[in-house]
Amino acid sequence: MHHFPSRVLAAVSFSLLVASGACDAAAVTTEDAPAAFFAFSGTLVGTAPANSRIAMIWVINDANPDYKFKYGGGVPAAGSFQLAFDGAPPTDALHATGMGYGYLALVSADVPDGTRAESSSAFGIIGRSFEHSVVYRASTAQPGEPWAGGFQNGYGCGVCRRVAPTSGNDQLDPTSCSSISITIGNGSLCNLN
């Protein structure tokens, strides 16, 4: 009889749950798995080209200059995608307030994690999550955005609440991560600046 370490069994069990679609959004907090592990799947609207990838693009608009930071990714499948984070985002993906948010993008090729210019053209984006964002709230966060107080510590997902152009920036409301969709083509991102 073979004995496998519980850590290996926990990782295999979680991988099977994600692969089977049994997990909508998982925050695994057992002692055998990383506390910040977070994974979910969503819908892909359109056909993903061969070799395309999913990239999480964090938008940092309180720096000088503003920038976008790629951290996290996944692989598209027929009509869906999966995304996983194996820990908290790097400090460079968060605002000075301890909040982080951004959009999911379908990119033409794998993009390494790291800081990029404000122009998204550096990523080779062919689709985005126009109405949804992934949000991260550090335990020490001092949210400056009025909508941020609705999110608990750790990872979560938000749906855009559009406001009239003359009344300020759009806002995010907490939502199920399974509701996130990436649409191939052009559209209008949630304006959280």
Helix content: under 10%
Average pLDDT reading: 79
Total of DSSP H or I helical runs spanning 4+ residues: 1
State the end-to-end distance: 58 Å
CA-atom Rg in angstroms? 17 Å
Topology order in helix (H) and strand (E) letters = HEEEEEEEEEEEE
Number of strands: 12
The order of strands across the largest sheet is 2-5-4-3-6-8-12
Specify the biggest β-sheet.
7 strands, mixed, barrel
Stretches where pLDDT is under 50 for at least 5 consecutive residues are 1-35
Shape, per Cα inertia axes: globular
**Helix/strand-derived class?**
mainly beta
Question: What oligomeric assembly is this protein in?
Answer: single chain
The share of residues in extended strands comes to 35-45%
Report on the architecture of this protein.
There is one protein chain. With 193 residues, the chain is mainly beta. The chain is 8% helix and 39% strand. It is built from 1 helix and 12 strands. The chain has one helix at residues 6-20, and strands at residues 25-27, 38-45, 53-60, 67-77, 80-85, 99-107, 114-116, 125-128, 132-137, 154-161, 171-175, 181-184. A 7-stranded mixed barrel has the order 2-5-4-3-6-8-12. The longest helix has 15 residues, at 6-20. Mean pLDDT is 79; it is low at 1-35.
